[in-house]
């Protein structure tokens, strides 16, 4: 508390450090309001995660009867039950989710990089129109497209296949939009012009000059798309009928909704949800170092 | 330089046009396979169901009768609920619904009015004798057609804590009048304990209670639908529960929440109006009170009556998209009338069969584990099932159920008038039917 108390002696909590008019502070002051706000935000975000972690350790009889944040004794049982459920179909779901998310995010990122770069660097008729359509796409929640997309893919006889979940997620208006903004900001027009002067082809300029500059932005697009696909429910729900192809989100729902006469398998679902978060956390930890966002970090929300 | 830019754009535009053309061509060949005269030779069917363990039951068919008839069924496990109805209808719109679907009774009219399930009267008509009339009638919707074969049912019953009833000196109510008295007596003896709760989340429970009182919410006369959600019987039920909530004799919190589980598990709520599948729910909701519960028939509206409602239950339907309707209907009939199939369904999936003969078969000679203290559980259950009142579902049960949750949710929370909530439910349901283009007589 001592450091917090110090900040109270400063001019006003929340002013930018280093702008104090009176004598310069000896210690780095902590801005009270932002710190508390951030702490509250962190608690708000982390409490549910803590709940999932702790609830995953509880056995069926402990789940609703013991204190919420008291760890239980059933994690090993929950884990082996989940393992045994329908001959380990959970791991199949996990694999499917990984496939959809990794492949979908990679494809989506490359499409975004191409189109974002093109929209930022070239002047061509209809550019503004394309960009406006794209903006409209950003505002449109992907959820409402799921059923039209299903009807479309049904015409092509592609429903209930891996492709039916992958294809619609390759084009992400938001990704293209981000890539365009990032390319415009990170790739100076002079550099591109210099490349042309030196006789490099447009393709070479893009891959050798522009792309390396766009990497941090593309990592962001990849992460967003990865998380969006990993968490997507409605699209795979509508597209797929074979539970061997379900991603985790749709798979876990079948454990919850087993009809009125069968109780929901809460312990399995919670353990399954807990395990499904781990790859996401790991991904963020690994990719973090490629991810220097600066100008985007404030403007971007998932 | 502008030249280069232009060329780049033109080239990429050409590529995308080519891609689009390719997709159309693909779509064109996709929709051209239409072989309807596949009656002989091996047939393979797909079946959407949420019942756990169904693949094992279907294996019996694939290795036995199905092998003889060259009909192979593949289970595609789904999640239950209204979302599945939407999924079936979406698939039907694209002509891609599976051959067989599991459907709750109240969802059948929706599926029928969207022309998603087929009339299989000529294939399964003989099965009628295996089911109670009230059950069978739910699959015919009161017409000459048969749209599904009943699979499981949920006759409603009264569950109570035997030990705590003794402790508080309560007797098991046989009429709703006594039920209210019991609730009040309990409140007097132990103000912190509730007999039960009125759950505004469970539309199916209220529908079952209204059904017991004689309500028929949807009926047809000629080409017109008649909606009677606010009829005298339903008003009686709404007023009864509304008054109990208002005077504080019972709780007003929803069921199936962690708080509710805790209330059951710790004896804060000592009774539950539920259906035959309650043992499964109690096993997970109130694991510590195993063996302390007992089951009795639902309280009646008058001493001389003996009827119950139903909460839950489902059927097996054949879709209009199926190219092998006869084969699919044959499987649906086998699944829900064959002795071995029903025994397997009871054992693997824990369902309570709609077929009357199966209700007393070998699988139901011992009580559910949770009710080991009540050896005649299933004999009693079969007797109660026989008294199930007929039910009348319409094409927009989902809308009625949603407005129930909203209107009764508000009324239960504010302890206000339940009957006006019922009127809201009636009005919204009629309005929606009209909006959907049905003719409604008022």
UniProtKB/TrEMBL annotation, chain A:
At the top level, the lineage of the source is Bacteria
Its BP terms in the Gene Ontology are: transmembrane transport
| Presence of keyword Transport | yes
What keywords appear on the UniProt entry? Cell membrane, Membrane, Transmembrane, Transmembrane helix, Transport
Q: How does it sit in the membrane?
A: Multi-pass membrane protein
From the UniProt entry, list the residue stretches annotated as the region Disordered: 1-24
Q: Which residues form a coiled coil?
A: none
Q: Name one GO cellular component term.
A: plasma membrane
What segments bear the compositional bias annotation Low complexity? 9-20
What region holds the ABC transmembrane type-1 domain?
94-287
Q: Which InterPro entries does the record match to this protein?
A: MetI-like, MetI-like_sf
Give the UniProt subcellular location, in the record's own words.
Answer: Cell membrane
Q: Where are the transmembrane segments?
A: 30-54, 98-122, 129-151, 171-189, 209-230, 264-287
User: Of which family is this protein a member?
Assistant: Belongs to the binding-protein-dependent transport system permease family.
Q: What is this protein called?
A: Carbohydrate ABC transporter permease
From TrEMBL, chain B:
Give the UniProt keywords, A-Z.
Cell membrane, Lipoprotein, Membrane, Palmitate, Signal
SUPFAM superfamilies named among the record's database cross-references: Periplasmic binding protein-like II
Q: What is this protein called?
A: Extracellular solute-binding protein
Question: Which InterPro entries would you find in this protein's record?
Answer: Bact_solute-bd_prot1, SBP, TAT_signal
Q: Which PROSITE patterns does this one have?
A: PROKAR_LIPOPROTEIN, TAT
Which range is the signal sequence, renumbered to this chain?
1-27
